[in-house]
Amino acid sequence: MKEFNIVLAGVGGQGTLLAAEILGTAALNDGLNVRVSEIHGMAQRGGAVTSNVRIGEDVAAPTIMEGQADVLVGFEPIETLRNLKSASEKTLVIISDEKVFPPELTSKSLPYPSMEEIFDKIKMFTTSIITVKTERLSKEAGSILARNAVLLGALAGTGRVPIKTDSLLDALRKLVPTNNMDTNVKAFKLGYAYVKGEAKAL
């Protein structure tokens, strides 16, 4: 495999950076060449956080060029839009339905765009879109904080990522706190099962 590029976009407090670390660790455990980078991140709660995970023989630079993402995982809808520059018609967008109102909307009393408006903008780049009921599935697993595990499971469920599902689960077990492990494993499996049905349409 020459190159496979994943962009993860969210806000501080959603576990975006941990998800990127899990992907990188799992890829290494599979013997793959991988680069993981945080592009801009004020990782405090509410600040925008974007990570790149690049896998493959030809990968040297840590950052993904515009239009070169194979998968864009949007932890938050507006942050997904902010990172569409990395997408093209080949990109699969996995988008969470969990909205976090950015400070600029709140301070200016601007409305949050509808999901229909958000999808219309995404479709200007790609028609491969999977929406994940992240909030519902993470709560079903036992904690809203397991949203990143839900999205990692969703990513695995698409069958697109060149990392073994067992390797992702092993890395998750290694990197999440022990007292949250069962919840995160359940969240991963719920995300995986949820997307298995959704991905068939793509």
SSE layout and pairings?
Elements: E1 4-11, H1 16-29, E2 34-41, E3 48-55, E4 71-74, H2 77-82, E5 92-96, H3 103-107, H4 115-122, E6 129-132, H5 134-141, H6 147-157, H7 165-175, H8 181-199
Parallel strand pairs: 1-4, 4-5, 5-6
Antiparallel strand pairs: 1-3, 2-3
Helix pairs in contact: 1-7, 5-6, 5-8, 6-8
What's the short version?
It is built from eight helices and six strands; from the N terminus they run E-H-E-E-E-H-E-H-H-E-H-H-H-H. The protein has 202 residues and is of the alpha/beta class.
Explained architecture:
It is a single chain. Helices cover 41% and strands 18% of the residues. Helix 1 packs across helix 7, helix 5 packs antiparallel against helix 8 and helix 6 packs parallel to helix 8. It is of the alpha/beta class and 202 residues long. It has 8 helices and 6 strands; from the N terminus they run E-H-E-E-E-H-E-H-H-E-H-H-H-H. Strands 2-3-1-4-5-6 form a 6-stranded mixed sheet. Strand 4, helix 2 and strand 5 form a beta-alpha-beta unit. It has a single domain, classed as Pyruvate-ferredoxin oxidoreductase, PFOR, domain III (Pyruvate-ferredoxin Oxidoreductase, domain 3, 3-Layer(aba) Sandwich), CATH 3.40.920.10. The relative contact order is 0.17. It starts with a strand and ends with a helix.
